[in-house]
């Protein structure tokens, strides 16, 4: 029953993300003064886009392989973060191939560029918040987890009586068995995101005229938005799955623990926030700013 | 803004040092102003980070800036920036006028060219 619902629900959410992306693209217009060297700016734009697409393709392939890796649910949990890591690697490759300033005479302004100048104001704090929720949730589920019937630690939620007898054990439960691979991939994605943002901020400016600077700033902001969205998807999608599985296990233990139902609903709330965030990040990934000469 | 001519006989680090020292002496870069990070300025100029680091080090030795770990490179207070700025502007104007005259121009033509350029900005 649940499997029958997942596919149409996913299709609906992707459709919402596409519509949101169209709206974002229509409203995100960057006006730049006319002038500059359009050939250099177009070349940079093309390189960044193709590198991102190559990263996305590599990420999708790796994600497909990871999806089938583990029959106990770890593969599907890690598929989205692996896709996100591929996109981050592609973005990094694009940023590394941006042409360096060349020519006999080169100029530089004495501005100080910072990551916060380019990171999106809503998406970046949201990603930080989701990361915190994921770490807290996985820590709690790891601490409360028990071994399953085959002795694999951190796979079930067991209700134990005072004399130590296991009264009921339900699984899967996102204990350490699931938490460590997810936390490891999230840590790798976070470090990679920080590296890409550092590169986005520090790479050289292609020109000093007002038009080139405006387009360059728009490209940097878009790259930072892609990085934030890719990292956000790395966190939000598996967090949705973890929260749904946790809530399901809690509801099945409601006969033995009165606190399980309200806790389950609270965790379902986390799942809703995470899925809404995933739709937002997908829309951010699909949207592109329109650069218009004024 | 600073410019580096990589074909100039003066090495790039010296060009950076001289221009920044001039901006500091003139008061364009006031006390406690933070200079761009070495890697960022090097990337913007298409130079090695060591080149910019050397310029910053020489500025530090000259008493123009101070570098602190984690705090970046900041401009130190300079004594009496006003007259130095005026004198530097006059010096550049003198050099420009000399160049115009060398090309067969007049002082009026030099002023007219400057006025035209100023209007474009």
Tell me what the structure shows.
The complex is a heterodimer of chains A (about 290) and B (about 120). In chain A, helix 2 packs antiparallel against helix 3, helix 4 runs parallel beside helix 6 and helix 5 runs antiparallel to helix 6. Chain A has seven helices and five strands, in the order H-E-H-H-E-H-E-E-H-H-H-E. The mean pLDDT of chain A is about 90. Chain A has a domain of about 170 residues. In chain A, the strands form two sheets. In chain A, strands 1-5 form a two-stranded parallel ribbon. The longest helix of chain A is centred in the C-terminal third of the chain and has 43 residues. In chain A, a hairpin with a 5-residue loop joins strand 3 and strand 4. By secondary structure, chain A is mainly α. Helix content of chain B is about 60%, strand content about 10%. The longest helix of chain B is centred in the last third of the chain and has 21 residues. In chain B, about 25% of the residues are buried. Chain B has about 120 residues and is mainly α. Chain B has five helices and three strands; from the N terminus they run βαααββαα. Chain B folds into two domains: about 60 residues, Orthogonal Bundle (Arc Repressor Mutant, subunit A); about 40 residues. Chain B has a two-stranded antiparallel ribbon with strand order 2-3. The chains are: A mainly alpha (about 290), B mainly alpha (about 120). The interface between A and B is medium-sized, with 19 and 22 residues.
Q: From the 3D structure, determine the CATH topology of the largest domain in chain B.
A: Arc Repressor Mutant, subunit A
The assembly state of the depicted protein chains is heterodimer
| Helix/strand order of chain B | EHHHEEHH
Q: How big a fraction of the residues of chain B is strand?
A: 5-15%
Overall radius of gyration of chain B: 17 Å
Number of helices of chain B: 5
Instruction: Give the uncertain stretches of chain A in residue-range form.
Output: none
* Mean of residue pLDDT values of chain B: 89
User: Kindly, what is the distance between the CA atoms of the first and last residues of chain A, rounded to a whole number of angstroms?
Assistant: 55 Å
> What is the architecture of the largest domain in chain B at the second tier of CATH?
Orthogonal Bundle
Round the Cα radius of gyration of chain A to an integer and report it.
Answer: 22 Å
């Amino acid at each position: 029953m649940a499997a029958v619902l997942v596919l149409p629900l996913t299709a609906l959410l992707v459709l919402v993300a596409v519509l949101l992306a169209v709206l974002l693209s229509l409203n995100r217009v960057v006006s730049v003064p006319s002038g500059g060297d359009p050939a250099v700016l177009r070349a940079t734009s093309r390189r960044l886009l193709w590198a991102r697409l190559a990263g996305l393709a590599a990420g999708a392939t790796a994600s497909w392989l990871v999806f089938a890796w583990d029959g106990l649910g770890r593969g599907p949990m890690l598929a989205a973060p692996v896709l996100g890591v591929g996109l981050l690697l592609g973005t990094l490759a694009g940023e590394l191939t941006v042409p360096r300033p060349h020519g006999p005479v080169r100029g530089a302004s004495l501005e100080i560029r910072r990551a916060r100048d380019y990171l999106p104001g809503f998406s970046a704090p949201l990603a930080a918040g989701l990361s915190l929720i994921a770490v807290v949730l996985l820590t709690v589920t790891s601490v409360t987890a028990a071994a399953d019937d085959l002795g694999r630690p951190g796979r079930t939620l067991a209700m134990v009586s005072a004399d130590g007898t296991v009264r009921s054990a339900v699984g899967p439960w996102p204990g350490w068995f699931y938490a460590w691979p997810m936390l490891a991939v999230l840590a790798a994605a976070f470090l990679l995101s920080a590296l890409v943002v550092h590169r986005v901020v520090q790479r050289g400016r292609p020109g000093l005229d007002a038009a080139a600077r405006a387009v360059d700033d728009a490209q940097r902001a878009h790259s930072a938005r892609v990085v934030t969205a890719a990292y956000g998807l790395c966190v939000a999608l598996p967090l949705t799955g973890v929260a749904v599985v946790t809530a399901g296990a809690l509801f099945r233990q409601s006969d033995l623990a009165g606190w399980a139902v309200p806790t389950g609903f609270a965790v379902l709330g986390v799942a809703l926030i995470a899925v809404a965030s995933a739709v937002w990040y997908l829309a951010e990934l699909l949207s592109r700013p329109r650069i218009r000469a004024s | 803004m600073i410019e580096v001519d990589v074909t100039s006989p003066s090495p790039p680090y010296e060009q950076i040092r001289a221009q920044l020292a001039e901006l500091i002496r003139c008061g364009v870069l006031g006390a406690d102003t933070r200079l761009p990070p070495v890697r960022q300025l090097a990337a913007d100029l298409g130079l090695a980070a060591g080149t910019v680091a050397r310029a910053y080090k020489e500025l530090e030795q000259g008493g123009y800036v101070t570098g602190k770990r984690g705090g970046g490179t900041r401009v130190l207070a300079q004594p009496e920036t006003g007259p130095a700025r005026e004198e530097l502007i006059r010096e550049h104007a003198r050099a420009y006028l000399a160049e115009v005259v060398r090309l067969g121009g007049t002082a009026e033509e030099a002023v007219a060219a400057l006025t035209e350029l100023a209007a474009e900005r």
